Amino acid sequence: MKKISNRQFLIQVLSLIIFISGILLLSTVSCASDNPPGKKALIVWGGWEGHEPKKCVDIFAPWLVEQGFEVEISDTLDSYLDVEKLKKLDVIIQVYTQGTIKPEQERSLLEAVKSGVGLAGWHGGLADSFRFNTEYQFMVGGQWVAHPGGIIDYEVNIVPEKKNDPVVRGLNDFKMHSEQYYMHVDPVVEVLATTTFSGQYAPWIEGVVMPVVWKKYYGKGRVFYSSLGHVASDFDVPEAREIVRRGILWAARVIE
Predict the structure, then answer these.
(1) What are the residues whose beta carbons fall under 8 Å from the beta carbon of 36, sequence distance 6 or more?
(2) DSSP letters spanning the chain
(3) Interatomic CA distance for residues 163 and 159, integer angstroms
(4) Would 9 be classed as within a structural domain?
(5) Does position 44 have pLDDT exceeding 80, yes or no?
(6) Distance CA 168, CA 219 (A)
(7) CATH of the domain at 151
(8) What is the pLDDT of residues 3-32, one digit of tens each?
(9) Distances (CA, A) of 119 to 24, 54, 107, 195, 205
(10) What is the span of the domain harbouring residue 151?
(11) How many angstroms separate the CA atoms of 109 and 114, rounded?
């Protein structure tokens, strides 16, 4: 058996170390290129306390962090004033019912979403936020007008033609015990789930099929809305919670 000198042995060891280091370096670079930088989300909450905005935020904010989002939580609409900061976000989640938004706040929010920032929300926190701001309502795609009977039992139906949409894929029709929202809705929205009014509390609307979950665009921005979520416990219904989660991800362009 041929013997090698100490010098030859050291050269071979160093060569092996260099080879392994090179492989590890290439692997690190490859992994870095496969993982896009973290997403950024702004959650703005406030307005009428009856919708339990903070409790609802506490349901979804930790989950967003688990998804890799950098999350900022704010209880003031002044968070909308810095339009350049807003444009660096991936999604804005608004939980703000029956508020008053200043022209400069609204202007920045509209501009940010129109430029491509996502917008997501539920119930009155997005679709009964600013009753006198029609351009805002145009962006959202709808406005609450009534909930006949108050807290009642009703069914939410996934639109059959949309069963493969990522926001509702794999979900079945489900029951809610909450407010059944009657809304004025923009015909341009893409409806993913509906509810049908029985007419028990308002006979003239018997049989009306009303959108519950939709998505749309405002300029380049993705807008997601669900009318579910009157109070935090509504999200104890797994389908209601999952739809909002997926809707946020869609608005943030995490899923297509």
Answers:
(1) none
(2) -----HHHHHHHHHHHHHHHHHHHHHHHHHHHHHSPPPPEEEEEEEE-GGG-HHHHHHHHHHHHHHTT-EEEEESSGGGGS-HHHHTT-SEEEEEEES----HHHHHHHHHHHHHT-EEEEEHHHHHSS-TT-HHHHHHHTEEEEE-TTSEEEEEEEE-GGGTTSTTTTT---EEEEEE--EEEE-TTSEEEEEEE--SSS-GGGTT-EEEEEEEEEETTEEEEEES--SSGGGGGSHHHHHHHHHHHHHHTTS--
(3) 6
(4) no
(5) yes
(6) 24
(7) 3.40.50.880
(8) 545 555 444 544 444 343 433 333 333 333
(9) 40, 18, 15, 23, 30
(10) 40-251
(11) 8
Tally of structural domains, the chain: 1
Asked if residue 61 belongs to a domain, the reply is yes
Q: Are 217 and 189 in contact (CB under 8 A)?
A: no
Structure tokens at 158: 């996934």
In-domain check, residue 10: no
- Whether 142 and 190 have beta carbons less than 8 Å apart is answered as no
Task: Name which residue leads in pLDDT, 34 or 60.
Answer: 60
Q: Residue 53 is encoded by which pair of tokens?
A: 């905005």
Q: Measuring CA to CA, which residue among 75, 79, 24, 33 is closest to residue 54? A: 75
Single out the residue of 65, 64, 59 nearest to residue 95, CA to CA: 59
Contact 123, 129 (CB under 8 A): no
Task: Report pTM.
Answer: 0.85
> What value does the CA radius of gyration of the chain take, rounded to a whole number of Å?
24
Would residue 34 count as lying in a domain?
no
Q: What is the pLDDT of residues 154-183, one digit of tens each?
A: 999 999 999 999 999 999 999 999 999 999
